[in-house]
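Annotated sample (chain length 146).
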Amino acid sequence: MENKSSKPLVYMTRKECFSSAHRLNNRSIDDKTNCQIFGKCNAIHGHNYTIEVTVKGVVDVTTGMVLDMTVIKDIISETVLKSLDHKFIDEDVPYFRDNQIVSTSENISIYIWKVIAERLPTNVTLDSIKLFETDKNIVIFRGQFA
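Output written by the structure step:
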């Protein structure tokens, strides 16, 4: 039953693609152990990633929108695509290079969350980052920490 004082919460998703190279390698351990842990992914290789960025919010009574889709499109373009598209993630992206973070899909999704969340207008909340490394390998991050 609908509560007349409540406002519907609507989820919106924007989908984008980018291509990047990376190497699964932990600089704090030796080469042999890296090869054992990461196998063939310890070599430099690339992916055509797809991301789905989902935000949630209340529909504005004036515009009829939670958020103009061009706003989220521009945020993704300026943060994610500009920093990751056609880049070698481990060397070209300071977040991974300077912090020595292994560029797994899990860590890439956390990075994407961080750069998008800080740019969103206050009337919407980031709900999830869904990162497709391949058609079969998908990671979802919802901003939760254990």
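Annotation: The chain has a mean pLDDT of 95.
Annotation: The domain at 9-141 is CATH 3.30.479.10 (Tetrahydropterin Synthase; Chain A).
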